[in-house]
Design brief:
This protein is α+β, with helices and mostly antiparallel strands and 411 residues long. It has twelve helices and 20 strands. The mean pLDDT is 91.
Amino acid sequence: WCMNKKDTIWDLVVIGGGPAGMMAAGTASSQNKKLKALLIEKNDSLGKKLLITGGGRCNITNAEFDTRVLLSKYKKAEPFLFSPFNTFGVKDSLDFFLSKGLDTKVENEKRAFPITERAQSVWDVLVENLKENKVEILSNSPVKKLEKEGGQITQAVLENGEKIKAKKFIIATGGTSRPETGSTGDGFKWLKDLGHKVLDSDASLVPISIKDSWVKKLSGVTLSDIKLSLFQDGEKQRVEKGKILFTHFGISGPTVLNMSKDVGELLKYGEVFIELDLLPKENYGTLNEKLQGLFKTENKKMIKNSLGTLIPTSLVEVTLEKAGVPGETFNNSVTREGRISLVQNIKHLKMQVLGLLGKDKAIVSSGGVDLSEVDFKTMRSRLFDNLYIVGDVLNVDRPSGGYSLQLCWTT
């Protein structure tokens, strides 16, 4: 960063060197070779959060090529997103990475990952793209505020007092999830000061902590094809099917993360319970018959050594305990009441929610700039004609599964 750059008036300044900011700076410069573009990042390096997404594997997008189906996942933001996704959608993103030599593979629920299974590969493509297109990078430079004059943003003022002038500005500072990576909601504050309406940010995709001690004993166990039902005051509030991961504090995994926002809402009104159906494909009748069959064929065995053929072995002990059937009971001596209680607990293994883990464990945060204040044909602010707002700064609620990064690439 040499002295003579201080008086430069840049064509474009992008604030925030995460996925949205890197993509925006690289794309703008690739479309106009004469563009003088500067990317400002407060950390010592770009893309810190990108490198830890998807457990370090980087869920690059969701390979749903039907735009209507895809956009329905973005809930209330759906009507705003048709125009940007028609301009640059999922296929365009995959083509972009492929053109830079990075192929992808698709896993369950259409989650797309780099073929290398390393977030570093995605980072390398984005950084190489910045270099190729001669984008200047200013790191270790937190921005303090943006200054305006009339309907224009005139300059960004850094924490060290330095002023950076530009013809156009893009804000790509992310939300407030994983603050240790630099996502501390800075952009929200500047945009509020400029008069934009910013909805309070909250952690929206977070693991759930559970009261019941048996859950913690299962730390590290993953179950697939489980049905989770959310209850309050005995009323079923939501049902999801999928994967669940037990942790030392409770439960996590894609299905749990996607329910977490609803759990947070319900907790404001009282106690919340989650019930697991360990065998969602079996109804009570067939499950009862299977148990009877098992007790007949393995009549000389103890139930604790047989039940694992029906349900995940890691859950045998807790299911028996909840059903009130001692594990040492021989199969031929399980009572009818015991059997009915087992069916009940296999279909409704109940746990009480303690709370949500904080933003430090969140994958994305909800909240952000009111969408009605952005022109989605160009991502331009409706309040300032040389200011653009992209990525996580926008108030777009979405599930986990590649939707967040796709929002970054598209916007």
